[in-house]
Amino acid sequence: MSGYKRVLLKLSGEALMGDDAYGINRATIVKMVEDIAQVARSGVQVAIVIGGGNIFRGVAGGAVGMDRATADYMGMLATVMNSLALADAMRHAGLLARVMSAISIDQVVESYVRPKALQYLEEGKLVIFAGGTGNPFFTTDTAAALRAAEIGAEVMLKATKVDGIYTADPASDPAATRYTSISFDEAIVKRLQVMDATAFALCRDQGLPIRVFSIFKPGALLRVVQGESEGTLVHL
Ligand SMILES: Nc1ncnc2c1ncn2[C@@H]1O[C@H](COP(=O)(O)OP(=O)(O)OP(=O)(O)O)[C@@H](O)[C@H]1O
Ligand SMILES: O=c1ccn([C@@H]2O[C@H](COP(=O)(O)O)[C@@H](O)[C@H]2O)c(=O)[nH]1
Question: Could you tell me which residue ranges the Aspartate/glutamate/uridylate kinase domain spans (predicted)?
């Protein structure tokens, strides 16, 4: 069905809220899992990183006055919660998923060990990388780029609230237009805020393409994995 054997899927944490003000919307997570199941059942190995913006963001208003590193650790813990919720929804859908955290919380979740993650993927299990990079001052987009490179994913798929990369943030600029494709250097130089520059630079240096597409568009994930033109491709 596709040329891809192994992909890294970055899911927006904020998208998990659905129409709610914060947290995890049940219907939204179930829909996300249905889309992932279609791809996983086709034989593609899928590793996932989910953000934490629906629960906590270290640089957000709620963290004003806090020590930045402490706030960032709270953000990383939020991604552990989202990862557990995602794995639970996957179990309900009959999928086998393992959560591996960059921060050790052994009573709750397995710690990230690269060979073990590779073994799970080869066994056909979904692997959810929680806890970001395990370091403050980073983001889950950078964690996704890092893990994608570590596991030898062929592409990083960023499923987000917008349907690609625009000339400016489409949420605030209605005149913004969407790129079908864009080079890493152009995305970095133009400071397009859809992803942080560290994540773009890591993918560029590893020759790892990124596809940005809408998490809400029905069938978009499957089309992306089938190699169809969807959203925006970021390339060398
Ligand atoms: N040039 C741009 N093109 C597209 N989107 C942009 C651009 N600039 C800013 N954005 C914004 O980037 C955001 C990306 O959303 P997303 O929820 O994936 O972010 P995130 O920080 O990775 O979320 P989370 O941390 O919750 O996973 C969108 O809300 C979009 O409005
Ligand atoms: O490697 C990482 C990943 C994340 N954080 C903190 O968590 C929040 C939530 O992650 P998002 O990517 O914004 O969804 C982020 O704002 C950071 O505060 C981190 O410190 N290190």
Answer: 5-214
